[in-house]
Amino acid sequence: MSDRDQIIRPKKLSDEVEDRLLALIRADDLKPGDALPSERALMARYGIGRPAIREAMQSLQHKGVIDIRHGGKPRVATPSLDGVIDQLGISMRHILTHSHSSLEHLKEARVALEVEMVRIAAERRSADDLNDLEQLLRAQAAAKRNVPLFTQIDGQFHRRISAISGNPIFETLTYGVFSWMSAFHKEQVHKLGLEPLTLTEHRAILDGIARKDTNAAARAMREHLERANALYHQDHAQ
Prior knowledge:
The N and C termini lie far apart (49 Å). 74% of the residues lie in helices and 2% in strands. The protein is built from 10 helices and 2 strands; from the N terminus they run αααββααααααα. It is an all-alpha fold. It folds into 2 domains: 13-76, Winged helix-like DNA-binding domain superfamily/Winged helix DNA-binding domain (Arc Repressor Mutant, subunit A), CATH 1.10.10; 82-230, Up-down Bundle (Four Helix Bundle (Hemerythrin (Met), subunit A)).
């Protein structure tokens, strides 16, 4: 089929408004916190009704581009990497729940990401980093009978390791992968009762980081994550 034969579908009116609002933000060099025109002003500017304006605004708010407060003008939002991850959360959990292969791919990606992150952590860690990780490990040990808190601190431990890299993209990706898998992780910890083993593995990871032994830290992290993956397979094979 040639380009001439392909159907051109008209844009929804709200999509066109959304594109124009994004262009307006760029053209006026609006910064986080700067106000956009009101709904009424945009209606007059574009010659369209309120529903299309409101739908475009809601879409941009959902994408983290603008903030909408009741009774005030919409404003350019402060960029947030965590916000992007949170916006993807519902879709990702739906995919992982209904696609076993996607969950396996995510686990494989997590191993590759976190093994490299712990190598960087072992090279760059400071005394403050070690203190923070030690405090998290102690807090997790104290919470081993509280499954939600134990799992929450588990995620904080992994995220704190990735933060040592100094690269916020790495930290956000680690947070995202863990949060997307959190429901599955809670099921493992609660059902299999492996809190003591998790704590032992976390201790081995921290010891490798403390000694600046990149190979030991990476090996401990890989064994920790692959053990969790293997147990998940066993759980679903029964």
